[in-house]
Amino acid sequence: MSAPAHRRPAAAHLRAAVERRYPAFLADLGLMTGVDSGSYDSEGVDAVGAMAAERLRGLGFAVRSVPVGSTPDGRRLGDALVARHAGRAPGGRRLLLMAHLDTVYEAGTAAARPLRTEDGTAYSPGACDDKGGLLLGIAAIGALLDLGAEDWGELVFLCTPDEEIGSPGSRPLTEALAKEADFGLCLECARENGDLVTARKGVVDLRLTVRGRAAHSGVEPERGANAALAAAHLVIALQELGGGPGGTTVNVGRVRAGSRTNVVCDEAVLDVEVRSATRDGLWDARREIARLASRTWVEGTSVEVAEGEECPPLERTPQVADLADLALALAAELGVRAGAAATGGAADANFAAGTGLPVLDGLGPVGGGDHSPGEWLDLSSVVPRGALLAALISRLGTRGAG
């Protein structure tokens, strides 16, 4: 028996279905942003996660909480959520939707800055990054279900609790789910001009420890080897790196040296960040840093390099470019203003893309002011961007339709 013909919802029907869910979106935005959920506030993160789980179960998702461990200093992280919804498209694709529960704000911020709306703009901590995106995903999926358009093999909705601190606990979960998926859709908000995100720089942190030799600075300074002086030369050389493949940047973000003014400095520490849009760029920068570290900047000093874990870039591969072209074509059909942009910031999309999964980001509403008291969300963008996300899910979910 042949499979039934695939009928995608008309643009007007999608927009109307999302519009009907807008009041719930706005009410939930107030509830979610009214809860402090800084990355280290596990109770707050779990409270926001419980709200998301309730909404997803209401849509028929099977939801489970996944513990992701603790920080190196022993603080428990909130749980991740993994929600699954089987569709009705024969041989359909598995789509991974990603959002995060945590914010950068300290306890008390939610009470000090409750949701307020002014001239069609919502202001509250986390409204843009990323509670608005999470809720838009729920609204878009709800609209498709309202229309009976379950055009996918399986939707997997992942909510991480620690994205704002680099996802140290949830990264393995993101990567495992990405390896099972056909496409990834990240619900970080769109750029301020409405652009989708097709590339994000990868990041790696390094610590360079410069070791010298202590001596009395007044009696016998010649017996010392000044690690601070060597570090100063090294800082200048490091800052001159960059500009290679992928728009690589190198930033010496923190410098610590010495203990007393009357002692020749015997140790200095440089904390360095490298960002690049390509893995080749990250590799080339690390090789150059190793070369600089091998030089003798001051006689009697040496440099040791320790690398942190790499966050891979979300590269604009041909598959990602095709995904972006599809999204922009759908945006044009829906009358949604959108382009394609690259950004230097990292997100969970990076980890999913690092497995080889084609990922498109910036699929939430339009917003800005992330990590600041002025964080905002353009409420007029919610319905059109929700319709775009719903259309993209519908198109990608059916094999052969992407």
UniProtKB/TrEMBL annotation:
Signal peptide interval? none
Entry annotated with the keyword Protease: yes
Essential cofactor(s): Zn(2+)
Q: Which residues are responsible for catalysis?
A: D102, E163 (proton acceptor)
Key words of the record = Carboxypeptidase, Hydrolase, Metal-binding, Protease, Zinc
Looking at the record, the residues that make up the Peptidase M20 dimerisation domain are 198-297
Q: Which GO terms describe its molecular function?
A: carboxypeptidase activity; metal ion binding
Record bears the keyword Hydrolase? yes
Segments traversing the membrane: none
Q: Give coiled-coil spans as residue ranges.
A: none
PROSITE patterns (alphabetical): ARGE_DAPE_CPG2_1
Identification of the protein by name: Glutamate carboxypeptidase
- Say which species the protein is native to: Streptomyces radiopugnans
Q: What is the lineage of its organism?
A: Bacteria, Bacillati, Actinomycetota, Actinomycetes, Kitasatosporales
